[in-house]
Design a protein that fits this description.
- With 257 residues, this protein is an alpha+beta fold.
- It has one domain: 2-Layer Sandwich (Alpha-Beta Plaits), CATH 3.30.70.100.
- It contains 7 helices and 8 strands; from the N terminus they run E-H-E-H-E-H-E-E-H-E-E-H-H-H-E.
- An 8-stranded antiparallel beta barrel has the order 1-3-2-8-5-7-6-4.
- Helix 4 packs antiparallel against helix 7.
- It is globular.
- It holds the Pfam family EthD.
- This is EthD domain-containing protein.
- It comes from Frankia umida.
Length: 257
């Protein structure tokens, strides 16, 4: 089984969808993506006001990281109907087949077209700097940054998604080096927090482990490490509401990965 992630952007002045719009989109996804092929479906939508508050934006942005649609299928190339739907709803998007690792899971998996998963998700698109290869970014993330994040941030859940291959847009040939395209992400991180204040309050966001350091020192440690393996000029992050529309996994007990 493969996980395919469509990453969508929108112009900054696009209105936020209403709850009725979200439910209509979710029902459309369930209706147009047959369960016998799309074994799992998850939709993340940016919480724009909260993202702007978190990132202290005071001016409008031209382009927003608006959504991700993740589908679990037997073969990543067998997603033409999902791609057609995404083309219609979010023309500005890129697609990758990812290797998913659920590193930590302490929350329920609640399947619903109307209610997002409890809590709040920080989703980040990760891009490597020119000095690193894709594999070097991944190795640093797994060996160095991920353990640091799990120790410092109060995330209930942590999901690592590494691009295994890129699915080109319709009518475009596959590239020999897809990561040379500045729109193509190398990986996606999903960190789930129980409380919005766990994200917005720096003393909580960086304060899970202050036994030997302060949260300010932890923030510096995280920031310095990010600069070692990510391209900060392209990295994008947003606070998301996530709707689990179809789940192929058996129900899990919180705290068990």
């Amino acid at each position: 089984m493969e996980k395919v992630v469509f990453v969508a952007h929108q112009p900054g002045d696009t209105p936020s969808p209403s709850p009725a719009d979200v439910e209509q989109l979710n029902q459309r996804l369930l209706g147009e993506l047959p369960a016998e092929r799309y074994l799992g479906i998850s939709l993340q939508l940016e919480d724009r006001a909260t993202t702007d508050r978190w990132q202290r934006r005071t001016e409008p942005v031209a382009r927003r990281f608006a959504a991700t649609l993740s589908v679990w299928v037997e073969a990543g190339e067998d997603t033409a109907d999902a791609a057609a739907l995404v083309d219609e709803v979010w023309p500005d998007h890129v697609t990758g087949v990812v290797t998913e690792a659920v590193v930590r899971w302490n929350g329920p998996r609640q399947v619903s077209a109307t209610q997002p998963l409890p809590g709040h998700t920080v989703t980040a698109l990760l891009y490597r700097p020119p000095s690193l290869t894709h594999d070097q970014l991944v190795r640093h993330w797994i060996d160095v940054h991920q353990p640091m994040s799990l120790r410092i941030h109060p995330a209930r859940n942590y999901v690592r998604n590494v691009v295994a291959r890129v699915l080109p847009a319709a009518g475009k040939p596959a590239s020999d080096d897809p990561f040379s395209d500045t729109t193509q992400f190398d990986a996606i991180s999903d960190e789930y927090f129980a409380s919005l204040e766990d994200i917005l309050d720096p003393s909580r966001f960086y304060g899970s482990d202050v036994s030997q350091t302060t949260w300010q020192q932890n923030a510096t440690t995280i920031g310095d490490d990010v600069g070692l393996f990510l391209d900060g000029t392209r990295m994008a992050a947003a606070i998301m509401d996530e709707y689990l529309l179809r789940d192929f996994r058996a129900p899990r007990t919180p705290g068990v990965s």
